[in-house]
Amino acid sequence: MMQRVPAQTIGKWDLRILTLTGRQPVKTAADILKSKPDQIVHSIAPTASVFDAVKSMADKSIGALLVMEGKRIVGIITERDYARKTILMGRASKETPVSEIMTSEVMYVRPNQTSEECMALMTQNRTRHLPIVDNGTLLGLISIGDLVKDIISEQRFIIDQLEHYIRGERY
After folding, report:
1. Can you spell out the DSSP letters for the chain?
2. Is residue 73 classed exposed, middle or buried when 0-12, 13-18 and 19+ CB atoms within 10 A define those classes?
3. 147: CB partners within 8 A, 6+ apart
4. Pick from 154, 170, 165: which is nearest to 24 by CA?
5. Which pLDDT tens digit goes with each residue over 18-68?
6. Fewer CB under 10 Å: which end of the chain, C or N?
7. Residue 56: how many CB atoms within 10 A of its CB?
């Protein structure tokens, strides 16, 4: 089952930054996704072994795989799931299907939701990955790392703009 977080409006401070910089200060989930150099969503079937899932994550240097049945998201499996639900429970990864340890209730966001909303959802629910879904169609997957990278970039831009403003420089 997937859950969605409602979108919120831009606050007064954000509008001041928008006026000063000429840019929208808060990006959307779709913007974050577009900025990723690799937008491939890696997935696995629920019937695959946990061993195959972990091997796939290791080969791709990623921390999670969406669990898919056709084009439908049925879960997500993470390195944390493997550590807590396989290793600590004494299960054999080659004999355990992904469906037994995956997280079935996958939280997702819509493309127009802000990076701040995504960050809040991840923080509140202690999750590191969010699928972006629009009208039932999976568009991509963003991670906490993608959001942090964007926030750092945006803060650097705002600092640069404010420094130019303080010095009275024009473009």
Report:
1. -EEE----PPPHHHHHHHHHHSS-SS-BHHHHHHH-S--PPPEE-TTSBHHHHHHHHHHHT-SEEEEEETTEEEEEEEHHHHIIIIITTT--TTTSBHHHHSB-SEEEB-TTSBHHHHHHHHHHHT-SEEEEEETTEEEEEEEHHHHHHHHHHHHHHHHHHHHHHHHT---
2. buried
3. 32, 115, 118, 119, 122
4. 154
5. 444 455 557 899 999 999 988 899 999 999 999 999 999 999 999 999 999
6. C
7. 16
- What fold does the segment set 8-167 form as a domain? CBS-domain (3.10.580)
Under 8 Å CB-to-CB from 137, ≥6 apart: which residues?
Answer: 71
